[in-house]
Fold:
Amino acid sequence: MVKFLPLKEAVAENLHDGDTVAFEGFTHLIPTAAAHEAIRQGFRDLTLIRMTPDLIYDQMIGMGMAKKIIFSYVGNPGVGLLRRARDAIENGFPRAIEVEEHSHAGMANAYEAGAAGLPCAVFRGYRGAGLASVNPNIRSVTCPFTGEVLAAVPAIRPDVTFIHAQKANRKGNVLVEGIIGIQKEAVLAAKRAVVTVEEVVDNFDDLHPNLTVLPSWTIAAISVVPGGSHPSYTHGYYERDNAAYLEWDEIAADRDRFQAWMQKNVTESSADDFAGRVEHLRKAA
Amino acid sequence: MSDADNLGFTPNEMMTIAASRALKSDDVCFVGIGAPSAACNVARLTHAPDITLIYESGTIGTAPDVLPLSIGDGELCETAVTTVAVPEMFRYWLQGGRISIGFLGAAQLDKFGNINTTVIGDYAHPKTRLPGGGGAPEIATSSRQVYITMAQSKRGMVEKIDFFTSFGHGEGGDHRKRLGIDTAGPTLLITDLAIWKPDPVTKEFTVVSLHPGVTRAQVQETCGWVVKFAEALDETPAPTELELKTLRDLQARTKAAHQGTAKGKAA
Structure:
């Protein structure tokens, strides 16, 4: 049964040291507030899964929380490289991390297989790609009907998935709209799912019937965190803070500057600070 | 820049505009971020108004007023015909064979159109860890054709790439076919200096057109392999006033929009 909880409790109840965890969001709806809460609680030895591990995984890796990342694009979207992740991969700072790298098609298929309860995903991919020779989890199967050789990757089954969404109703059903990315699959593939939302409404009576709604019984906990995806955005609520992504490139370039930024904006902050960060990004406020 | 003073446009503007001209209204184009995104939107705003632009965030038939900083900016979704989930994007639309042109940029490129955006140096112990492939490995093999655009440099255009992120023509010839890849692969390369097409047999990129004011020597000096030139070498038509204005307006709107979100910062 879904519980409405303050973010601090939702994270403490559902995330543990050593867990395999996905904080998903494809540029849109990135669960930043949940990631920052995880950083404040100081979890260790996490296996971090995400198609596009952008700022929040740069931050978690930079704080030494990850032992492994599974990903398909380790960049700052539209800006360039992730400098804390680079420091970990290139120099083992602050600790060495294991890397399992896929293509987007590989990750998307693997999440879908996880949601579908299958052991692996099968698709036409990785042909001629170097990843197939450096990632032992990229293998192949032969179609029993046509003989075509197809790529196979293991299903993704996180211990816990965190996502951010527009809203929940009082029963705990959750609406996700706009660029919906991989969130539905990431929730259904996981043992537990935690959702942060912009707001809670009485009911979903006026919604279009085919919108992406995650039923309450697929979710362990919901926390109301307005602005909780900043500097990403929430369609219908506030815009992407592109300037913050550009600034991150400078902050993350320097180990000391990174630590100072994290101290001020994460360690000494709380989930309540997110609403203020998106105030200037709300349309026609 | 003296080129801009003399010619009225920069090499990068010429590159984007030459790339935009390669696209048609009936193309369904999977758009890579950066240089491809600018070219695709200039095409849409000039000669190819009905082109279908698809970004890997799941936005199909998008028509942004400003260039997105990322592949998932809100503007892409707001102006799209429809927005689908990421697994659907890759399974039904790309793998399903719906994409006519995959438009990619490159950090490192070889003469057979193979692209590296993964690492500089050894994979396990990289000198520089780049972002990686994202959607590119399958865009390169499932799109019916691939166009590539990048500014020329000896660091970028190399004899041997460090990692095969996206497969082009491999070692050349029929290498794609031998791997069971039945799409055409890279058929066009547009740089800031020239337009290149693969040799029909060897598949090595060959310069077919020099941009206005560009010499063969300049193309060779900024390329890490020995460049082949077509016997009948064309000159790329200079940008028209409309093309230049469209590109510059788009870039000005984009700059204003991306700086506009900076809290307490002057634009």
In short: The first helix of chain A runs from residue 7 to 14. DSSP finds ten helices and 15 strands in chain A.
